[in-house]
Design brief:
Length: 443
């Protein structure tokens, strides 16, 4: 076998899938060292290359080999740089746990643990609740419902529960599943008449971790199956942990009976992190990956990258990769060059179009509906929120605000703002939602 041509064909497949920019940065430096039967040994420059590929494209390399060789190939990584002894020990522990769990059919990201989760005021309550649940399954808070915007650590914290339970109770049955995967399994079970197998799989576990539940909206059969799965586990005092990008009452197109189940236990939110927490996260991530990050760079990145923690970590790894490949130190000059597309977001103006776009994205509604004459609850609330925030954050008159929402009159805007003011004053959860949206809209 000519492994040179084999790897070239694999790289062509990968580049077609990810595009030239991601390919040049993350996959071009990877080398195929050897092939042993159904195993491929790949060399990567360092640890964060491997972790980034595993986290962002977990199946891509296997798919590339399968496409080229018409056979299933197991991909293994060899890191060119030898890790320090303490990191090597952690690596061995992580890989041992991963292999042990995989042997039992449990697939968790073993890097997502409570030890690697940086705690601050914005996530302290959710962290404490998750820790309590992991130490007392089905008894303390059941279900535990964790919500927050994209990239704030929901997947990390619910996976950390699974990893802690796996360490404390080796015989525990654990399932982590995204709502998209759960939906696909329901569809497959119906199609192949294997609903009994699906019920056996999900209704006999000790802990079910369901990620991003908002994606089962409008999926009637999936909601029915999850409703009965929820009831079966709850009656047996088995632990249920659910994550979402919004609180239960704001989940549109999900049945009321399911939303009522979500509120039976504890609801904990994760808010966007303050600058201090982002700095702590950057420092911890840099320490883990042995990246030298000067203090001025920590502060610069923490203040410049405002979207979410996932993007913050991604920017650090992207900087480290460029630094490694070009032999340049990580500094503000390199950051401005490498991350220029991200930093341009700082210039987004506060205007009604941007407010409407962000509110629509949060509530999962279409912009034309917000400007339409529809008065359903699913449309009316986001419209009133957007009107209220527009009045707070812009100099537009009431009449101009109304025109921006499909020609509403100024009385409609006044009514919307009064409704929202009362809701903010009396509903702490709603107040946090408004604060979050305003922070996201601010330039």
């Amino acid at each position: 076998m000519d492994i040179g041509n084999t790897w070239k064909d694999c790289l062509d497949f990968i580049e077609a899938k990810v595009g030239k920019a991601a390919f040049d940065l993350w996959f071009k430096p990877v080398k195929l060292l050897e092939m042993k039967e159904n195993d491929a040994i790949l060399a990567v420059p360092n640890r964060f290359f491997r972790e980034w590929i595993e986290d962002n494209y977990p199946r891509l390399l296997s798919d590339a080999f399968e496409w080229v060789m018409k056979d299933n190939i197991n991909v293994h990584f060899k890191i060119d740089q030898e890790p320090a002894p303490d990191f090597a020990k952690k690596e061995i522990t992580m890989q041992t746990r991963k292999a042990r769990l995989a042997g039992k059919g449990i697939f968790l990201n073993t890097r997502y643990t409570f030890d690697t989760f940086v705690v601050g005021p914005s996530n302290q309550f959710a962290h404490a609740a998750a820790l309590a649940v992991s130490e007392s399954l089905g008894k303390t808070y059941n279900p535990l419902f964790i919500y927050g915007d994209v990239g704030l650590g929901k997947t990390h914290i619910i996976t950390a529960i699974g990893n802690k339970v796996a360490d404390m109770l080796p015989d525990a049955s654990i399932i982590y599943v995204s709502s998209e995967q759960f939906t696909n399994e329901v569809v497959s079970a119906i199609r192949h008449e294997k609903m009994s197998d699906l019920k056996e799989k999900y209704r006999t576990v000790d802990i079910l971790l369901l990620d991003d539940v908002q994606f089962i909206a409008n999926k009637t059969q999936t909601q029915v199956e999850f409703f009965h799965t929820f009831n079966a586990l709850y009656e047996k005092q088995k632990q249920i942990v659910i994550s979402s990008d919004r609180p239960p009452k704001e989940l549109s197109d999900i049945t009321d009976r399911l939303k009522s189940r979500f509120t039976m236990g504890l609801i904990a939110d994760i808010q966007p992190p303050a600058v201090e927490l982002k700095m702590a996260i950057l420092q911890k991530k840099a320490e883990v990956h042995k990246i030298f990050l000067p203090d001025d760079m920590v502060y610069f990145l923490a203040t410049k990258i405002r979207s979410n923690i996932r993007e913050l970590e991604g920017c650090l790894i992207k900087l480290a990769a460029h630094s490694n490949l070009t032999d340049r130190p990580i500094n503000i000059s390199l950051a401005k060059e490498v991350l220029k597309d991200i930093f341009t977001d700082d210039t987004k103006p506060v205007n009604v179009d941007n407010i409407q776009k962000i509110v629509c994205e949060y509530f999962g509604v279409k912009l034309p509906d917000m400007k339409s004459k529809k008065r359903t609850k699913e449309i009316a609330l986001p419209r009133q929120v957007a009107m209220y925030i527009t009045k707070k954050m812009t100099e537009l008159s009431l009449g101009d605000i109304g025109k921006s929402f499909g020609g509403k009159d100024h009385a409609t805007v006044i009514y919307a703002c009064k409704q929202m003011e009362a809701k903010v004053e009396n509903d702490e959860s709603f107040n946090k939602t408004i604060e979050y949206l305003i922070n996201k809209i601010k330039p």
